[in-house]
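Apologies for my clumsy wording, but are you able to produce some protein sequence, whichever is easiest, and the tokens describing how it folds?
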Amino acid sequence: MRLVFDLNASYLLKLLMIINLVLSPVSNEVPEHPCVSPVSNQVFERRLIEKYIAENGVDPINGQPLSEEQLIDIKVSHPIRPKAPSATSIPAILKSLQDEWDAVMLHSFTLRQQLQTTRQELSHALYQHDAACRVIARLTKEVTAAREALATLKPQAGLIAPQATPASQPAAVGAGGEAMEISEQVGMTPEIIQKLQDKATVLTTERKKRGKTVPEELVRAEDLGKYRQVASHAGLHSASIPGILSLDLCPTDTNKVLTGGADKNVVVFDRREEQIVATLKGHTKKVSSVIYHPAQSVVFSASPDSTIRVWSVTGGNCVQVIRAHEASVTGLSLHATGDYLLSSSEDQYWAFSDIQTGRVLTKVTDETAGCALTCAQFHPDGLIFGTGTADSQIKIWDLKERTNVANFPGHSGPVTSIAFSENGYYLATGAQDSSLKLWDLRKLKNFKTITLDNNYEVKSLVFDQSGTYLAVGGSDIRVYICKQWSEVLNFPDHSGLVTGVAFGEHAQFLASTGMDRSLKFYSL
């Protein structure tokens, strides 16, 4: 009896080994029609492996290419399958549960692997999509810029040839034999010159009528000395590229504030409503100068990207690109007619342009100087203007004749800012020599020098509309009363260099911008 039991046990063990050897890895069952894959040496159910090959064309075990013709049938007898042992004991139940748990864990592991692979593929696809969008945006921007350049160059086709090689053009020698005109054949027509003269006559007549009286609404010096900071706005420009580099107020409504930032943007701000009206984008470098048109909803900006842009505030778009220079534009000034712009540049030229057509009417340099222009400003009458140079000179130019009529030496560093008084007599200049100089245009001489603190940087000068006060922006903000030239107030509120100062109507408030990214207002 014991011998029979041993024989049956041995037979059962061998049978189980055979069954385990031929379990299909796909169905996890003994195949009815087994076959062998020569690629992985695994046994499969032919019905299942053929379906898998039809869908994927590879071996399910190692992923190698596999076809139905490669499968090798296994000729086996079909013994009666032994009945599965019944779970009649606790160890058998535990073993069954353990096997099921192992299968679930293995399946879960496989799913996690597949999920991770899918995530990586999705991430890669998203990065590719983002890169493609960036390339498309850059190309669109370049195409737009090229179209703007083409539209600007078309009306100036006659100017390109003579401006490209200034040295080869005939020089127009004026007083002192120093100036050279580039666009001689375009120049300034008699109609334009007459328009400038008529405007100057009107302005001179109005100034004589006003005389030396100041408006009754003008803030008195003792009240101005009581000014304090009443508002500060730091959210106009980008925080990642800090710095507001230029400031201007609308002459007819000083509650409209215009700023240019290191973030390449121009911002129009309403002081009364304390909100941004428009953010104008288009420059490819920082915005160094801005001007608000007194009679139209139009603003102007200049940049080291060598362009001057004319913007519509209501439309929020660029309506004109003036390409008058080949290097950084350092100064910008609007003529009293409101139709023309004066610009200066590191390319050593000043240019006079029509804002409606974008045409450069004339472009002049001082051959003998050979240095960059750092700033430019029209005289209130509009027939003369001043430029500052990198070699510490201030030059006065006659616009109609396009000649240099006077030079003011005296500074020992590059001139950073100039400002004409509304009275038409005084010119204020600041330079990197930490000094402020006042010039009398009637006598063509320096009558006052204000020595500032050591290492003081003058960045902005402006007279109020009556010519009574002069504001200085740089290492701090200072306001002087004209004629006495005594300091009325001093504001050290900015944590960075002050880049712009401006008076409100009748000096009822003072505005300033700085490298600390803030726009500040001061009043009683």
